[in-house]
Amino acid sequence: MTLWVFGYGSLLWNPGFTVAEQRRARLRGYARSFCMRSIHHRGTPENPGLVLALDAQTGAACDGVALRVPEAEEDATLAYLRERELVSSAYLERWLSVETDAGEALTALTYVVDPDHVQYCGGLPLEEQARIMAAATGGRGPNAEYLHNTAALLADLHIEDADIAWLDARVRNLTD
Questions:
Q1: Quick check: helix, strand or coil at residue 96?
Q2: 18-to-21, 67, 104, 119 alpha-carbon distances in Å
Q3: Per-residue pLDDT for 40 more than 90?
Q4: Reported pTM
Q5: Residue 140: CA atoms inside 13 Å, Cβ hemisphere, count?
Q6: Domain ranges, residue 55
Q7: Which residues pair with 138 in a beta bridge?
Q8: Which UniProt keywords apply (predicted)?
């Protein structure tokens, strides 16, 4: 089976593995959302940041990119992703169907948020999200950097996300 990974946030601009091919894709039933507190990569336990997660929502859809892993690197990539994404068990690993722009259905490795996990924080007002991201820094750098990188790549891919665009502008205003 070919290993496809669905990227919707930092995997878009920092996959950390070799990408043999990429295709724009849509995942139905989930929304891209800053609904997970980051206590490792973009915040600390004392000052958590926020990172994107896929939050299950009826009628929602998330546009992103299906990333194909070279066959010879599938096992190593899977081990790497599990170490990276499952560091605090707030994400759940799922094999979900995504649809490419060409209408092709692919099964992709996808990390979705566990709404029962202590780090889940769905429903925070955008202004509160902006204030958190403007102030937090973790092991992989400032939370604002994560937001700005994601917003820039979504724009490059012509993927519209009004919340991300608003947060990007607001956090720049708060940190300038």
A1: strand
A2: 9, 9, 22, 29
A3: no
A4: 0.93
A5: 19
A6: 4-175
A7: 141
A8: Lyase, Transferase
Asked if residue 1 has pLDDT above 80, the reply is no
Q: What's the DSSP call for residue 68?
A: E
- Total domains in the fold of the chain: 1
pLDDT per position as a tens digit, 136-164: 999 999 999 999 999 999 999 999 999 99
What Rg do the C-alpha atoms of the chain give, in angstroms? 15
Give the up-direction half-sphere exposure of residue 170: CA atoms within 13 A in the CB hemisphere: 17
| HEC string for 102-165 | CCCEEEEEEEEECCCCCCECCCCCHHHHHHHHHHCEECCEEHHHHHHHHHHHHHHCCCCCHHHH
Q: What is the pLDDT of residues 84-143, one digit of tens each?
A: 999 888 999 999 999 999 999 999 999 999 999 999 999 999 999 999 999 999 999 999
Give the tokens for residue 129. 């999200």
21, 73, 85, 99: which is the annotated catalytic residue? 85
Task: Specify the CATH number for the domain of residue 63.
Answer: 3.10.490.10
Q: DSSP secondary-structure letter at 84?
A: H
